[in-house]
Amino acid sequence: MDFQQGRHDLALRGLPEVDATTVDLFLNGTDEAGVVAVLLSAGDPSRFPEAVDVAVVLPELIDAFAVRLRGALIARDAESELGKRFGVRVQPTLIFVAGGETLGLIAKIQDWSVYVDRISKLIDRPRGASVAVAATIIPSHRSQGVEL
Q1: Relative to the CA of 142, which of 14, 16, 46, 133 has its CA 20 to 30 Å away?
Q2: 116 vs 5, more confident
Q3: CB-CB contact of 42 with 54 (8 Å)
């Protein structure tokens, strides 16, 4: 599937295209509905072929999270401006927004389990709470079964 077909498919699935003048109207509507907005900043598919894959996955994610997500595609000519606003550094990127706050970003194509885990954490955390990142470090001698 080429990216234009992907854009067409997103429109058929009821996902609107937003730009710098319409994005706030879309975000206000998601806030009023009590759902999280997910915006796709796809980039140029000839430079970022993963954009097609993310465009295919986005409606599936919206379906999987039932009434908790509402999606839109950022218009190509608005990606730079809106990318700066939402902190996009790579494309394609899914941008999650609620209550005027960017909850988080998921860049590139990911495994389904990564999407489910990250999206669940983003939309379930209390608004205004920072996301804590925890890491477990296992010393190399412990990981090899060596006790000191």
Answers
A1: 133
A2: 116
A3: yes
Q: How confident is the model at residue 10 (pLDDT cuts 50, 70, 90)?
A: low
The Cα 96–Cα 74 span in angstroms is 13
Beta bridge partners of 73: 17, 40
Residue 132 DSSP code: P
Q: Is the pLDDT of residue 32 over 80?
A: yes
The dihedral sign for the CA sequence 90, 33, 119, 65: negative
Question: Per the structure, how many domains does the chain have?
Answer: 1
| CATH value at residue 110 | 3.40.30.10
Token pair in block for residue 51? 């954009």
123-126 contacts at long range (C-beta below 8 A, 24 or more positions apart): 123/36, 123/65, 123/68, 123/69, 123/96, 123/98
Residue 147: pLDDT band (50, 70, 90) is very low
